[in-house]
Amino acid sequence: MAEPRSSSTHDAQGRPLVAVTGLGIVTSLGRGVAENWDALTAGRSGIRAISRFPTEGLRTRIAGTVDFLDTDPLVAPLLSERFAMVAAEEAVTQAGIGAGFPGGLFVAVPPVEMEWPQRQALAEAAGEPEAVTYAGLQQAAATRRFDAWHDLFIFGTVADRLADRFGTRGSPISLSTACSSGATAIQLGVEAIRRGEMDAALCIGTDGSVNPESLIRFSLLSALSTQNDPPEGASKPFSKNRDGFVMGEGAAALVLESAESARSRGAKILGYVLGCGEKGDGFHRTRSSPDGAPVIAAMRAALDDAGVAPEAIDHVNAHGTSTPENDKMEALGCSAVFGERIGSLPISSNKSMIGHTLTAAGAIEAVVSLLTIRHGRIPPTINYALPDPALLLDVVGTARDARVARVLSNSFGFGGQNTCLVLGDEPA
Amino acid sequence: MSRPQARDVQARDVVVTGIGLVSCAGEGIEAHLSAFASHAPPRTDAETFAPYPVHPVAPLALDAQIPKKSDQRQMEGWQRLGVYAAGLALDSAGVKDDAGFKSALPLVVAAGGGERDYAVDGAILTGLRGTNEAGAFLNERLLNDLRPTLFLAQLSNLLAGNISIVHGVTGASRTFMGEESSGVDALRIAHARIASGQVETMMVGGSYNAERPDVMVIHEMGGFLLKPAYRPVFERGGDGNGGFVLGSAAAFLVLEAAEHAAARGARALARLMPVANDRVARAPGSVQASLTRLIGEAGVERPDVVLSGATGLSDLAAEEIAGIHAALPGAGIRATGDVVGHPMEVAAPFGAALAAALCAVGSAREVAVTSVGHRRGEGVIRVVKV
């Protein structure tokens, strides 16, 4: 019996091959694939001093905010919705898939809750003479003046509005796996197509949560860089003097389609999601197992799922947050998976330029990975002036031209979330 | 070489081998079966959060499922309930001490987010009234008053994270958000992954803490809460449109491919069938029509009972009942809200778990579970006796 072979429509395991036919992206570097690709390959930074709210007294006063899109009120769920709409519009238009999207929606959204301006408005309406209490806020809510905020601050609304806008089928999935959420959205879409449930999936990661409390929460966990000056120098993955991540905003959308469906309608195939891998880590709420086993398992699971050996990977699009912990563990994990070859396998972190876009990161970096494949050009890890000598990596310090057929894109998150994708130009 | 067709692999049976429940009715399968059988009104606290009644969770001996005090301290209520119920489900499946099973067990959780520090919020809001430097004041107070670890008790995916840490369930986790429909989606996708052969086992469920004043602010906006006292779910019409009484609850199910359960000698408590759900644009009659169609899609035949997750909003409940009866004339309908209240994301997993328990003890051969979200989403889950 012959070895199983992939075809133009199915992978070696006989599953429907998952093609990408539309890409959309918004980051602090700009709107759309063209603007972002130009900026990313030019090594431009989107990190700047925060102007959205006062930063007095904060240890971190910089972020990769998307300042050219805004909403009223300026709150995380609305910003996240706006970014997602813009990215999805671009992806769906490129795919040419029609007005009613012929598949499901999987959207990674940041956890939602009421924000301070809204709490203040309720407190004011309550008019409690002494201390403000939640009982007062409840009484204010009962005036019916604030009813519109219910939908604004429940978890399913962003997905609901996206589903309405793009006409996706069935129940839209809103999900979180913390900082690997964007990759999980893609994984869910891939799995649904492989099960034959749908021929197409709209997969989105979005995050617009640069606001005082979100920033302060990360700051209190000592997760953020405090090297505010100059802002564009703060995010320096894999550098010896890295001191934390920089919050970023943005969204990315991918139209996934069974290769069979994409070919039959004559769509241009931009690349393939060849494999997805994940592994949980029960070691600690914010830290990885010291031996890196879950990170290693997630990368290997993605390679296995894609049916490729480590040698088949040409480039690693790193999670590369610029925290001391992540970059060390990621380097350790990559060394275990790729062996000595890791010293000559180009690795790069888009977060050096756009910051850590949190919920959106996995999707944004998947889009960049596919652009890297298409253009044969690896975006740099900027600010790589002082390499960490303990990490034996081939960090791409300036944009590098190379034939890139397959990329491993890593995403790791709080709560033991590890999700990796293998993206490629052709079936494995 | 012939390719496996999706249709072939979809034929794998999915069985429930573990159930973990906590709510106002107590903890465990027995407590919930007896609460269901009793038809007694659920335990209600109408005082603590007046004018909003809630169904408070029964007192739990947390040490039994969360041995380390440090773990208990790092969690907020919603996480403790969920981790506790997940532990009960692992016990029920007989895998609590099976490190190999747990390290390969994928998890899908339906959840919102965690509690806030109410005293800190109140003090900051009070202080904000007296300052002209609101931004600087807010920054200073948040930096000084927020507990650093509170963030990890709030993040939606950190219920799953805590289940991984406390119980060693480390296959990989995904957290679905989006109120009631996320619970249905979690069940649907967990089932589909096993049925299609993508995985052998799953743990699926969710957790909700109703005893927190911030969720009452959110749901009072829109007028979704019943006041001032509990009334049976299907008797909340009258002067207004009813409303929900939030209930603290957590429900987890261990699902396995039937052959996987058989191979390890596990008892199949019930069979979970493919879940049917949708999200139709809300207009008069649309929910009714959607439910009728979904009952057909789910293949519901002659259920001994329909467990409705009706929220308590009268207009939606009327459509739900009409939709059920159009497909299943004369079917008996019981509201799970009359057992545990409305636990939001947990409503569907709770209904599925109770349905499996009813099948396991022989009280039912087929149970249908329905879910109509207060803003969106309709779902039907069919559970049958093995």
Helix coverage percent of chain B: 40-55%
**CATH class descriptor of chain B:** Alpha Beta
Structural category of chain B is alpha/beta
Shape of chain A: globular
Most residues in contact, chain pair and counts: A-B, 91 and 89 residues
Level of helix content of chain A? 25-40%
Please explain how this structure is put together.
The complex is a heterodimer of chains A (428) and B (386). In chain A, helix 7 (181-194) crosses helix 13 (361-375) and helix 10 crosses helix 11 (324-338). Chain A has 2 domains: 18-113 and 153-424, Peroxisomal Thiolase, Chain A, domain 1; 117-150, no CATH class. Chain A contains 13 helices and 16 strands. With 428 residues, chain A is an alpha/beta fold. Chain B has one domain (6-114, 155-384): 3-Layer(aba) Sandwich (Peroxisomal Thiolase, Chain A, domain 1), CATH 3.40.47. Chain B is built from 16 helices and 12 strands. In chain B, helix 4 packs across helix 9 and helix 13 (286-297) packs parallel to helix 14. Chain B starts with 5 loop residues before the first helix and ends with a strand. Chains A and B meet through helix 3, helix 4, helix 5, helix 6 and strand 6 of A and helix 6, helix 7, helix 8, helix 9 and strand 4 of B. Strand 6 of chain A pairs antiparallel with strand 4 of chain B, so a sheet runs across the interface.
Features:
heterodimer, A: 428 residues, alpha/beta, Peroxisomal Thiolase, Chain A, domain 1, 2 domains, twelve-stranded mixed sheet, B: 386 residues, 16 helices, 12 strands, 40% helix, globular, disordered N terminus
